Amino acid sequence: MKLHIKNGRLIDPANGIDAVQDLFIADGKVAAVGAAPAGFAAERVIDATGLVVAPGLVDLSARLREPGYEYKATLESEMQAAVQGGVTSLVCPPDTDPVLDEPGLVEMLKHRARGLNQANVHPLGALTVGLKGRALTEMAELTEAGCIGFSQAEVPVEDTTVLLRAMQYAKTFGYTVWLRPQDAHIGRGGIAHSGPLASRLGLSGVPVMAETIALHTIFELMRATGARVHLCRLSSAAGLELVRAAKAEGLPVSCDVGVHHVHLTDADINFFDSNARVTPPFRSQRDRDAIRAGLLDGTVDALCSDHTPVDDDEKLLPFGEASPGATGLELLLSLTLKWAEDYAAGQQDGLARALSRVTSEAARVAGLNAGRLDVGAVADVCLFDPAARWTVEAGALASQGKHTPFLGYELSGQVQATIVAGHLAYERRAANVA
Q: Span 410-414, mean pLDDT?
């Protein structure tokens, strides 16, 4: 399929492009930018007038719920949600059932995803067998099966010696360890940010020190081993300050934040709204402001949706009993644009910088050949209307998970088409395609 995307505002942060330029796609790859290559005859032409043409989004944390939790979501529903949200590559944590700790499970997941011919799925392998924090998995075999790194998902390793051995092994073979910093004991069982609001509501708290103590431990182990670590979904100002210092020191560390945490605080729990029950919990306004600042100065490398579909039976419960998690694949772009509009508007490259956090920078963190529109690169493309307004409603979401704290919000930015490896995986406005 040869595609010609014309008259769109092409934004490719990796190559510093932000201009009205045409894009030409052939054999699943970018054939040219600007002028058509010699002899190019398009089979389909997409008029992108008024649209932004950008690399497909790269999401660093999206739970697809397969295998084991198909009652919460299926691969079909979440892959459709991905392309409807402009996401062409996504990283999935290993906390499925069974856990992704064996090569056969990883190969099965990748085979199922390939068969759907939609977004690219990149699994993280379990760091320890069964995520139990005792025996290390066969990382080499899991890498051969398609894992791009190793994670404990939401289960901290209690035995620091085990984490030390894992990082030593990862360093030896050049693997990246993905960790969400949380102490195994402090804040255990907590459901909200420790602060005045949690006290007034009678909710058990998760203090910021649960994150910072874990970060101190991780950085000490990094100094001892030299292993590369990606920190997942940081939530606090104090945590980001430690990351800033570690980067200045030269430690091989990167980090992301969940896109929900860029906008919401613990006050958004309101009157025990279970849609705002997430992990890590929404923190104070000071922490939220630090996240926004960290995105601007580069301390935060990437944004992720932290997509965690939860069914009604587990969400429509009292706040303390509800399962944590929110749908996010279809909100990632709009919430990223909202940050750009609200907090990077004064920056000359505000939109491009925002898009870099969900394209080229996210791909760099994950070690993926994605998130850019180089000539010869795989043609993963997102076309969206930055001015289009849409209301977040359960019925409008393709994901089987319908719960998000943004229900009822009006957001800007609507995906019009998503192209994966040159294949038109999703289109909203067929009238623009000739």
A: 96
